[in-house]
Design a protein that fits this description.
This is Dodecin domain-containing protein. The protein has a 3-stranded antiparallel beta sheet with strand order 1-3-2. The protein has about 60 residues and is an alpha+beta fold. The mean pLDDT is about 90. The chain has 1 helix and 3 strands, in the order E-H-E-E.
């Protein structure tokens, strides 16, 4: 199946484990039609003894023709 192009949107992935897992979680939200992604921001919060990683992604998702 051909595709007509991409829709570009922003997604934030989160993880209690690592930045890499936060990226995987964010990319996973785009599903099978993911064409590309770009990391636009990384941050971490610390609440008590728990770290939480957040990664902002710009993603291109294929549009069906």
């Amino acid at each position: 199946m051909e595709h007509a192009g991409c829709v570009v949107t922003e997604v934030t992935g989160t993880s209690d484990e690592s930045v890499e897992e936060a990226i995987r979680n964010g990319v996973g939200r785009a599903g099978q039609s993911l064409e590309w992604f770009e990391v636009t921001g990384v941050r971490s919060t610390v609440l008590a003894s728990t770290e939480r990683f957040q990664v902002d992604l710009r993603v291109g998702v294929r549009m069906a023709a």
